[in-house]
Design a protein that fits this description.
This protein has helices spanning 3-6, 19-32, 46-56, 79-90, 111-123, 137-147, 166-174, 194-202, 207-217, 229-236, 245-252, and strands at residues 12-13, 36-38, 64-69, 95-100, 127-133, 152-158, 178-182, 221-222. By secondary structure, it is an alpha/beta fold. Strands 1-2-3-4-5-6-7-8 form an 8-stranded parallel β-sheet. Helix 2 (19-32) packs across helix 3 (46-56), helix 2 packs parallel to helix 10 (229-236) and helix 3 packs parallel to helix 4 (79-90). The two termini are 30 Å apart. The structure holds NADP nicotinamide-adenine-dinucleotide phosphate. The site of NADP nicotinamide-adenine-dinucleotide phosphate has 27 residues, from helix 10. Substrate binds at residue 101.
């Protein structure tokens, strides 16, 4: 089955959801109805996710679980053991999706050196789907030629009304790669834009709900996070918000290519 058929479009990000408070927030997300959790080796939240999953009493099959390989584990012989460690932190035999968290910093390693072990991990059943994160069009071209068509399931990138990554998103659509939006609510900064605030108020919604509804309407997945019960719930309620084509077009005009996460060792963005 294609990832588009199985990945719940609105997931819960877990960056910052640490320790007892973090477990509580993840549990709250599961109680609210989120069935897709996003973690990463570098977030240090895999154990919290595993504990919350266990405490929730939900069956493993009900949850879509994503983790990401740290670039530190791209060195020869490290990727598969690191994923096995992630599985043990999460308390599962297999994750649904494993992503390469970033292209190799400064392009120091050739992509094949760390994509091939990920393909191997999938062949061994450690992960159902594989994908990438923070990849540009040029890197996706390379990844598709190494992995073969249809194997790269998603590209997780910074995407919200302020940075819409239109060219990259079109490329992904053309090649059957799902776009997953991180920082989908611009880290709580959407209220700075009067057009978004005004548009949201016409739906009796928050700018965050508006942004999430926009991303879902575009066919993307989105993984907002919050440590606050009421925001966890109100973000999830965006699933019920349907925007008019005119308002989708209006939100498209708010794109400012405003990238918040751009480390100096990162790729040459599109
Ligand atoms: N692949 C990557 O390189 C990458 C990079 C960054 C993030 N991610 C993933 O994407 C997830 C989400 O990204 P993110 O955490 O950076 O940003 P985000 O989800 O866009 O924003 C989270 C921030 O917004 C606040 N917030 C949440 N709901 C709100 C609401 N309804 N109204 C106002 N403020 C609200 C939260 O504060 P409170 O907690 O106080 O509510 C938090 O500070 C992460 O958790 C992680 O899983 C991936």
């Amino acid at each position: 089955m294609k990832i588009q058929e199985v990945m719940p479009r609105l997931g819960f990000g877990t960056y910052g959801r640490w320790k007892a408070e973090g477990i509580e927030a993840i549990l709250c997300a599961l109680e609210t109805g989120y069935r897709h959790l996003d973690t990463a080796q570098t977030y240090d939240t895999e154990t919290e996710v595993g504990t919350a999953l266990e405490q929730s009493g939900l069956a493993r099959a009900e949850i879509f679980l994503t983790t990401k390989i740290s670039t530190d584990n791209y060195a020869e012989g490290r990727l598969i053991p690191s994923l096995e460690t992630s599985l043990s932190h999460l308390g599962v035999d297999q994750v649904d999706l494993t992503l390469l968290h970033w292209p190799s910093p400064n392009g120091a390693q050739p992509l094949a050196a760390y994509l091939e072990p990920l393909l191997d991990a999938q062949d061994r059943g450690l992960t159902k789907y594989i994908g990438v994160s923070n990849f540009t069009i040029a890197l996706l071209d390379q990844a598709r030629s190494i992995a073969g068509e249809g194997r790269i399931a998603t590209n997780q990138v910074e995407l919200n009304p302020f940075i819409q990554n239109k060219k990259l998103a079109q490329y992904c659509a053309d090649h059957g790669i799902m776009v997953t939006c991180y920082q989908p609510i611009a880290h709580g900064r959407l209220g700075d834009d009067p057009v978004l605030v005004d548009t949201a108020s016409r739906y009796d919604a928050s700018p965050e709900q508006l942004a999430l509804a926009f991303e879902l309407a575009k066919g993307y997945a989105a993984i907002p996070t919050s440590g606050k019960r009421e925001r966890i719930a109100s973000n999830f309620a965006a699933l019920h918000l349907k925007l008019s084509p005119e308002d989708i077009a209006l939100i498209e005009t708010r794109d400012r290519n405003l990238r918040a996460i751009a480390p100096d060792w990162g790729p040459d963005w599109d």
